[in-house]
Amino acid sequence: MENHLVLEEINKEFADGSLILKDINLRLKQGTKLSILGPSGSGKTTLLRIIAGLETADSGNIFFGKKILNNCPPHKRNFGLMFQDFALFPHMNVFDNIAFGLKMKRMDRSKIKLRVEQMLVLTGLEKFESRHITELSGGERQRVALARTLAPSPCLLMLDEPLSSLDRVLRKRLLSELTLIISALNITTIFVTHDHEEAFAAGNLLIVMNEGKIEQQGTPEQLIQTPKNKWIKNFLGV
Ligand SMILES: Nc1ncnc2c1ncn2[C@@H]1O[C@H](COP(=O)(O)OP(=O)(O)OP(=O)(O)O)[C@@H](O)[C@H]1O
Ligand SMILES: [Mg+2]
Questions:
Q1: Each residue of 3-23: pLDDT tens digit?
Q2: Model pTM greater than 0.70?
Q3: Which of 24, 44, 165, 207 has the most ligand 1 atoms within 8 A of CB, as the residue to mutate?
Q4: Which end of the chain is more exposed for a tag (fewer CB within 10 A), N or C?
């Protein structure tokens, strides 16, 4: 299968001179579910923002299929990014939140309605379409955020700690709901977390980041069975 998302030698330094990402190389095939695991400050969000085009790398290349994305603006990449705080519009109802990206794309109203209805079914929110965001639980908000991200049919889905604002019990339940919805779609997905149980559950490929570098890459089994060094062993608790 053709390589789908390719990162070559990505480096990023912020204005104060601190190096945030160092020589990041990554190749993801279509349909891969990648989990990025790493402690706070290791560069996970910065890497997603670079892939999404919200931040530019100082050097290196990003390809998607045969296309080079280095100078492609975020809205032309057709990637979906779901943030930790969901970033929903509180003054809009569920339907309008999910429809937002489709209206931006100037899709016709009848098509928008159809697509939003599909998303409501996919995320089990059929009864909530006219509810306001402020009238939803944390778990329901998360599903609206996922529906909104998936509505424009992105060719890459990125989730940045999508569960971190929820309590432990809800997190466990929603992790399985989320992975179930995503695994049913043949969409390449990048799931960022600093929780190794979440990373193992959500991904069939895993990278562990530390201080801006990829420490190790492999399947969850490979990382558990053959952690490359002591740091990874401690970090994964194996
Ligand atoms: N705009 C910025 N300017 C300067 N430094 C930044 C900027 N954004 C992030 N950083 C720094 O880059 C490093 C990596 O940040 P990043 O948000 O990518 O980490 P993370 O792995 O997502 O962490 P967390 O798990 O806490 O979300 C941190 O040290 C952070 O302080
Ligand atoms: Mg982050």
A1: 699 999 999 998 888 889 999
A2: yes
A3: 44
A4: N
